[in-house]
Design a protein that fits this description.
mainly beta, seven-stranded mixed sheet, about 120 residues, single chain
Length: about 120
């Protein structure tokens, strides 16, 4: 499973960005897709996840960020509105998936995309 993320950049506080992540390669099934972020000097944190039945968000982004996925479950987007300087981080997409029918369920990570919010 390979993940390719895009959409990061520099934006002023209050602005918006949309991150996208496309999964490709050997994919038997994807169980969960999500976005994590890591700011300088801080631990990586889970920002948002989406499954067939639910979405979940980090408290600090609720009401501002929206996660969505395409019907084929191979693309996951993160729409980020009302961005704040504290949202500045490298954002990583991740999926929990089986690469093949008899493979174990595993977590796969994209390469990260920088989001910088200026005040």
């Amino acid at each position: 499973v390979q993940l390719q993320a895009s959409g990061g950049g520099l934006v002023q506080a209050g602005g918006s960005l949309r991150l996208s992540c496309v999964a490709s390669g050997s994919i038997f099934n994807i169980y969960r897709m999500g976005w994590h972020r890591q700011a300088p000097g801080k631990q990586r944190e889970l920002v948002a996840t989406i499954t067939d039945s639910s979405t979940d968000y980090l408290d600090s982004v609720k009401g501002r960020f929206t996660i969505s996925s395409a019907d084929d479950k191979k693309t996951v987007d993160l729409l980020m509105n009302s961005l704040k300087p504290e949202d500045t981080a490298v954002y990583y997409c991740a999926v929990r998936a089986k690469a093949r029918r008899y493979s174990p369920i595993d977590d796969y990570w994209g390469q990260g995309t920088q989001v910088t919010v200026s005040s």
